[in-house]
Amino acid sequence: MDDIIETARECGSFKTLLNALETAGLKDLLINKGPFTLYAPDDDAFSTFSEKELDNLLADKEELKQILLYHITGGKAMLQDAVQLKSMRTLQGGDIIAEESGDDVNVNNAKVVHSDIECTNGVIHSIDRLLNPE
After folding, report:
1. Measured between alpha carbons, how far is 92 from 95 in angstroms, rounded to an integer?
2. What sequence ranges are listed for the domain FAS1 (predicted)?
3. Low-confidence ranges of the chain (pLDDT < 50)
4. What are the distances in angstroms from CA 46 to CA 16, 34, 63, 94?
5. What DSSP string describes 21-42?
6. Is residue 11, in this structure, part of any structural domain at all?
7. 3-state helix, strand, coil in the chain (%, to 5)
């Protein structure tokens, strides 16, 4: 078992997210600290952005950092724990809501695609879109 960053790299479906975390200066946080829960938009989530939109997102490092911090909560919350908690405070300061919708679990407006990917310093839940801070 590896840390959040190495686990995400090994999954192979978080290349854009890993690039964004590096650009925003958050990579070391997810290697050396924790535990954290990362709601990780996969590469398909970023494919909805045009190349220009993605470049603009990556260009504003402070805004990018705030958006990415909104995808991270303190502590290790397996998906069922997150649903029971319902509301979780992110490292950005805003709250995200996890709720069941039929057989799916949604975090805000994003569907959880893969859950409970355990890491040495937390857990990753893969989601199908970027979360927008409130």
Report:
1. 9
2. 1-131
3. none
4. 7, 25, 16, 22
5. HHHTT-HHHHHHS--EEEEEE-
6. yes
7. 40, 30, 30
- Which domain, by its residues, includes 60? 4-127
The answer to whether residue 134 sits within a structural domain is no
Amino acid 134: pLDDT: 72
Bridge-partner residues for 97, per DSSP?
87
Contact 122, 76 (CB under 8 A): yes
Q: Which two tokens stand for residue 122?
A: 């937390």
Number of H helices, E strands in the chain: 7, 7
Position 94: which residue type? Answer: G
Q: What is the pTM of this model?
A: 0.95
